[in-house]
Amino acid sequence: MRPILMKGHERPLTFLRYNRDGDLLFSCAKDHTPTVWYADNGDRLGTYRGHNGAVWSCDVSRDSARLITGSADQTAKLWDVSTGRELFSFRFDAPARSVEFAIGDALAVITTDNFMDHVPTVQVKHIAEDLDDQTDESALVITGIKGRINRAVWGPLNRTIITAGEDATIRIWDTETGKLLKESDKESGHQKTISSLSKSADWSHFITGSLDKSAKLWDSRTLTLIKTYVTERPVNAVDISPTHDTVVLGGGQDAMNVTMTDRRAGKFEAKFYHKILQEEIGGVKGHFGPINALAFNPDGRSFSSGGEDGYVRLHHFDSDYFNIKM
């Protein structure tokens, strides 16, 4: 496969997101400045300046007109994708970590961290078409989760919100009432912090990655455990191929120990597993630190990885990949 090295961030990567058409790639990092790239050749298109803290996640609207970002500066911001202009800033009493637009882009889910005397929250915000109508008010606030919520995503048809984080528990919530509907089983579920969560293209299932050195595939409606992928390193990032029966896992040892070892010992590579058979089928090396972010292009023909080393690596699959019968 043909790697493209993209250097636009001064600090470790935290999140990657393609737009629906797969021609743009958005990257977030601890350097305060979300960046947008051409997904084909890795050329940098521009940056979004306005945050004063690490940017933990982002999402782009279905029409690629708006970007939403969550930051340690206690704000989530709406941006104009094409101009880089800040459109609106949601302000919180704690860092904003996970953000995602709902189907239709009229709602967004945002999580806030446990900070000082503030408990973690999951908040739903209305996203107005006309910026003059945009408000800071929350349509729904969910509390009661202990520990940081690392990811919150919409379930099928916007009827549920799925959360996961430090307490190693996945929960499904009703978006109308905020009521807890389902909770992952402690025996079959993760045993350590869930670091990442990514949905399938049709939203029917999702994958979680954990510091317990495993990734797990779940049914989005029933929260039934479908598959488990076991590796030998903490998992920081996961994604599901939209076209093949493949999942990708990335991670490595803790960042604080990176300088004490070499690239091989740190196990800094993206590993591919057969989604059904749960077997490892390949790996891609290159990062000089733990992988913190992974994303498949919606066309399934490429994927990107972001690392503690501050680089985004863009990989286009060669023709052999598409001849694999899965």
TrEMBL record:
Keyword annotations from UniProtKB, A to Z? Cytoplasm, Initiation factor, Protein biosynthesis, Repeat, WD repeat
Which top-level group of life is the source organism from?
Eukaryota
Q: List where in the cell it is found.
A: Cytoplasm
Q: Which GO terms describe its molecular function?
A: RNA binding; translation initiation factor activity
Q: Name one GO cellular component term.
A: eukaryotic 43S preinitiation complex
InterPro entries named in the record: eIF3i, WD40/YVTN_repeat-like_dom_sf, WD40_PAC1, WD40_repeat_CS, WD40_repeat_dom_sf, WD40_rpt
Gene Ontology biological process: cytoplasmic translational initiation; formation of cytoplasmic translation initiation complex
- What is the protein's major site of localization? cytoplasm
HAMAP family per the UniProt record, alphabetical: eIF3i (MF_03008)
Q: How does it assemble?
A: Component of the eukaryotic translation initiation factor 3 (eIF-3) complex.
Report the protein's function: Component of the eukaryotic translation initiation factor 3 (eIF-3) complex, which is involved in protein synthesis of a specialized repertoire of mRNAs and, together with other initiation factors, stimulates binding of mRNA and methionyl-tRNAi to the 40S ribosome. The eIF-3 complex specifically targets and initiates translation of a subset of mRNAs involved in cell proliferation.
User: What PANTHER family does the database record attribute to this sequence?
Assistant: EUKARYOTIC TRANSLATION INITIATION FACTOR 3 SUBUNIT I
Task: Family membership, please give it.
Answer: Belongs to the WD repeat STRAP family. Belongs to the eIF-3 subunit I family.
Its name, as the record gives it, is Eukaryotic translation initiation factor 3 subunit I
